[in-house]
Amino acid sequence: MIRKVEAGSVHRQWIQASTICRITLIFVLGHMGVDGNERTDRMASERIQN
């Protein structure tokens, strides 16, 4: 999200102009590459397809 804002996202102007509220961006690590989650994703996908 920060990269998108820094890269010139449409939201950058809105964020810079916002004086009404405080905006906090929080990075949440995705599950990609985390042990067990890849296997769980495969199992879920297989179940949906069957």
Automatic annotation (TrEMBL):
Per the record, the domain of life is Eukaryota
Which InterPro entries does the protein's record reference? RNaseH-like_sf
Q: Which protein is depicted?
A: RNase H type-1 domain-containing protein
Q: Which organism is it from?
A: Arion vulgaris
Gene behind this chain? ORF183584
